[in-house]
Amino acid sequence: MEPLATAKTLDGAGRLAGHFLAASVDASAQGDFWSKAGSNILSQLLLAAALDGRPITDIMQWLAFPADRSPLDILRDHGFAAVAAQLKGTVEGPPETRDGIYETARQYAAALLNTEIAAWVTPQKDVAEFRPADFVTSTDTLFLLSKDGGGGASALIAACADSVMRAATAQAERAGGRLDPPMLAILDEAANVCKISDLPDLYSHLGSRGIIPITILQSYRQGQKVWGDAGMDAMWSASTVKVIGSGIDDPDFADKLSRLIGDHDVETTSTSHSESGKSTSVSMRQERILPADAIRALPKGTALCFATGMRAAMLDLRPWYAEPGAKELSAASARASQAITARANAKHAPSQGDYGTAA
């Protein structure tokens, strides 16, 4: 995929720069001066590279040498004089400030120094380019994989996923409002490798476009770390179906779930004795259906389900290896694992030069 394909406008370049920012900095630190300034410089250079038809890796050359006037000339030649003026102001500003801003931007884009990562996002003559606009009208499946967490290729993974969802939204609008058939976007480990900054906002309208996002997180707090308290609350509220598995160790979240499940009436009988004899009274009191400690102790294989317009439900999960096609899936998984092992061994196979002279 060519990530600069959507960066030929200021908004598109800013969105791409935002993915590099989100992959490197938690939500709580994204508003400080250096983060914002580094992201702005990155967006300006991405815009220049996109307008001039350059590969995205060229921005690392510009970041290494702020005095290079190429991006300034490109921006002016394409009618972005105001953006060029902003870039020039940073370049010609106090050296300490300029160097700090450029170093921040270099850290955000450091993944592009990895030649193996860069090869996936650099146009090549003999390799077909992945085009999101074509993909969303097909019946193909796209798998985006990244082995590491923050940094690394996660910014490019997020950029690709975001481009696909935006292309799907545009296609839905052209088709009358909704994709048919719908597109399923499963964002597993989204807080590690697919940090789309405005994902909580996208949740509010993607469903109405026939785009069904499924975000899988390790915990509620993990989402708060990436999208902030307000963002995670917004995504939680906009989700029409929420499934929470066992292993909840966050007392605040467990109590929140307990309150959402609700209370039930419990009959209490009390007996009193007096000179006139014994009397019995029955009263009702409310009690949590599932207290926080019971939620924490949910056994493996069970989950809580909160769906819009329905009371909470307890689910018995069915593992994939209990499904009818488990044998075929197991065989395919074994073949894939063997291929991964073979590639890893070939990449790191010892050679004669790795050994010293025999004694």
Automatic annotation (TrEMBL):
Keywords: Cell membrane, Membrane, Transmembrane, Transmembrane helix. It is found in: Cell membrane. Residues 266-285 are annotated as: Disordered. Residues 268-283 have a biased composition (Low complexity). GO terms for cellular component: plasma membrane. The keyword Cell membrane applies. It is a multi-pass membrane protein. It comes from the Bacteria. Its main location: membrane. This is TraD/TraG TraM recognition site domain-containing protein. It comes from Streptomyces microflavus (Streptomyces lipmanii).
